[in-house]
Write a structure and sequence with these properties.
The complex is a heterodimer.
Chain A: E1 5-7, E2 10-13, E3 19-24, E4 31-38, E5 42-50, E6 53-56, E7 65-71, E8 74-79, E9 88-95, E10 103-104, E11 108-112
Parallel strand pairs in A: 2-11
Antiparallel strand pairs in A: 1-3, 3-8, 4-5, 4-9, 5-6, 7-8, 9-10, 9-11
Chain B: E1 4-5, E2 11-14, E3 19-25, E4 33-38, E5 45-50, E6 54-58, E7 61-66, E8 71-76, E9 85-92, E10 99-101, E11 105-110
Parallel strand pairs in B: 2-11
Antiparallel strand pairs in B: 1-3, 3-8, 4-5, 4-9, 6-7, 7-8, 9-10, 9-11
Classes of the chains: A mainly beta, B mainly beta.
Chain lengths: 113, 111
């Protein structure tokens, strides 16, 4: 298995632009998670899906953030408009089910200038 | 009180020594506990899971869980320079599949 695949690896964008991050979970994993990691706040859960349905989006910072999972093999996290404070590493992770650990993707390092 | 607390370190241990990493948590309902290792610039990697009180050993790693005292620890025996990384404690809080992470302890194994 190729693991959790994220793209792009790095993204540099100007403030106000739209940013779309992509994730392909491990086949057969029913759960997909989006996390953001910064030095100050560590790993923060943004949203997670179970069987393509959003279950908990309480960690999404504000309306500028949105996430979709149109099918079992693809998810996007979109920021529109982007702001410098959104600069962070965004990780996607997937898991088989309740009580299981996650497998993380390689992450997307986002820099908003 | 934070949900998951870890000393940020750095924790410095000499090569060959035992490294002891600790984590405390606030939610008594937590049932699943995990340790992740994260090298600088890389993604977290699952190294241990533990679900019941006591010790669980896997090679040089031992996870210890004490639900009454609300702490979980990770022991690394015969520490190697390649163990130098940040170790993240994670556990489920509330909804079973949602993990909350500590901010991590940075471990440095010196030659």
């Amino acid at each position: 298995d190729a693991g959790v695949i994220q793209s792009p690896r790095h993204e540099v964008t100007e403030m106000g632009q739209e940013v779309t991050l992509r994730c392909k979970p491990i086949s057969g994993h029913d759960y997909l998670f989006w996390y953001r990691q910064t030095m100050m706040r560590g790993l923060e859960l943004l949203i997670y899906f179970n069987n393509n349905v959003p279950i908990d989006d309480s960690g999404m910072p504000e309306d500028r953030f949105s996430a979709k999972m149109p099918n079992a093999s693809f998810s996007t996290l979109k920021i529109q408009p982007s702001e410098p404070r959104d600069s962070a590493v965004y990780f996607c992770a997937s898991s088989l089910g309740t009580g299981d650990g996650y497998t993380f993707g390689s992450g997307t390092r986002l820099t908003v200038v | 009180q934070k949900e998951v607390e870890q000393n940020s370190g750095p924790l410095s241990v000499p090569e060959g020594a035992i490294a002891s990493l600790n984590c405390t948590y606030s939610d008594r309902g937590s049932q699943s506990f995990f340790w992740y290792r994260q090298y600088s610039g890389k993604s977290p990697e699952l190294i241990m899971s533990i679900y019941s009180n006591g010790d669980k050993e896997d090679g040089r790693f031992t996870a210890q869980l004490n639900k009454a005292s609300q702490y979980v620890s990770l022991l690394i025996r015969d520490s190697q320079p390649s163990d130098s990384a940040t170790y993240l404690c994670a556990l489920n809080t509330g909804t079973a599949s949602k993990l909350t992470f500590g901010t991590g302890t940075r471990l440095q194994v010196t030659l």
